[in-house]
Amino acid sequence: MIGKALICWSSKKQDVVALSSCEAEYVAASYAACQAMWIKMLLEEMRICDSTKVKLLIDNKSAIDLAKHPVSHGRSKHIERRYHFLREQVNEDKLDVEHCRTEVQLADILTKPLKRVRFEELKELMGMESLDNFDISEVHDSHACTSPISRFSLSLLSKTTMAVLWFTPLTLLLLLSLSSAVHSCPPSDLAVLLDFKSALHESHDGIFKSWTGADCCNNWRGISCDRNSRRVAEISLRAGPVYTTFEKPYRPEYISGYISPQICKLTYLSSLIITDWQGISGEIPPCISTLSFLRIIDLTGNRISGTLPADIGKLLHLTLLSGADNLIAGEIPVTLTRLTSLMHLDLRNNKISGPIPLNVGQLQMLSRALLSGNQISGPIPASICHIYRLVDLDLSNNHLSGPIPEDLGRMAVLSTLKLDSNRLSGSIPASLLGSGISELNLSHNMLEGTIPDAFGGSCYFTLLDLSYNNLKGPIPKSMSSASYIGYVDFSHNHLCGPIPSAYGNTDASSFAYNDCLCGKPLKAC
Fold first, then answer.
1. Paired residues of 163 in beta bridges
2. Cα–Cα distance between 19 and 195 in angstroms, integer?
3. Is the pLDDT of residue 262 over 60?
4. Which of 353, 331, 335 shows the shortest CA–CA distance to 289?
5. How confident is the model at residue 69 (pLDDT cuts 50, 70, 90)?
6. Dist CA 321 CA 306 (whole Å)
7. H/E element holding 12?
8. pLDDT value at residue 302
9. Leucine-rich repeat-containing N-terminal plant-type domain location, by residue (predicted)?
10. Helix ranges restricted to H, 150-274
11. Domains of the chain by range and CATH?
């Protein structure tokens, strides 16, 4: 069965002698080209096929060169003339030949003895069904109304030809079914998407209005398929902007509901993006950790609750994990540190508690770690300083305690460090003030001691906030040697002594509520 239509097919070895596998592939391609062009001519005469070129998929690049390029063709004069039909059709722009990797060659199921796992995989990709599960009465009903073919392609296997033979009055219907099966997403993926849709609810016609018909790969908004396998590879449902010019914030599109666990059956899924709907709740399906091809998970801006999947560390290809602005609770799974390809981690503004895993330093590819606005407790693991690609680290608004790791200031590319609104204690590491960090916020902690005299000409701070701590002593004179300090705030400490003259024009609030600071912009010393 292909697409609920009966077909007969046959395959055979070539009946010509070839000097190389390239020649055998070329001969096989010529056979296939003849069959494809004849079928196309038949459909054109019936006025149900446009003039779109036939596309022939070949898994041998040398055979493609033989068909396309004059130099290669000049070396094939020993091949019988009748087999050059393929090249003639290419030259006349009636047929395209494209390379198809062996692992996605659908014709293998018709021409090769395969292992059961591979057989079942290709059967699903082609939309094939067992005759045992088929009711012949469905053939006519399911194809009572058929849309025109937009394109037709024939998969070709090297050294073997595949001929589809049409013996019944259902010729047209069978051909349409074959074309649809190859170019539409498989029935299994289609069923999963419909289950996924049924768990979500739109306030009015929007994204899901386009989710009709069987061609989810081309016509369904937010759905993309792998070019070769035709399996669903990406779900991208992003909410539109919120318009605040009205009396109440207005969003033209709104989706509520939950993420169906059926999504875990999309085994080729590489990207899952469902962002900023604010009405999608429920938990992240634990089975999502079985989707081994996942590279992107972005669920930002919803009302998702529950915990992060315990086995999330199985997603070894994951590069982006974002669940910011949700209601996710529980601890960060220890297995998360196995995501050695992870580059972007954003779990801001949730209810995550517990400690940061001690071996977080294993995330060697991580460039952004944004965990602010949670209830994370315990110390900052020293291993975090081993993530040498880390550019942005935001752990603000948590319950972190203990000292700031000294080596944070020695991280080569760290640019933004936000540790404000925690319970950090101890002194400020001198390395933080003499590093390449441009945005440093240590405010609202319990830091003690003096401000390190570690400023230099390489210091360039767009923001330096040390307010609301227990710092004492003078403001270091070396601060005047910094290349640039934009916003500075040393207020609400126990600092004493003169303010460096370079900051005489700074707002007075930046130095207010200290023990005995003096000089502009405060009172004279």
1. 10
2. 53
3. yes
4. 335
5. low
6. 16
7. strand 8-13
8. 94
9. 187-226
10. 171-183, 187-198, 216-219
11. 8-183 (no CATH), 186-316 (3.80.10.10), 355-525 (3.80.10.10)
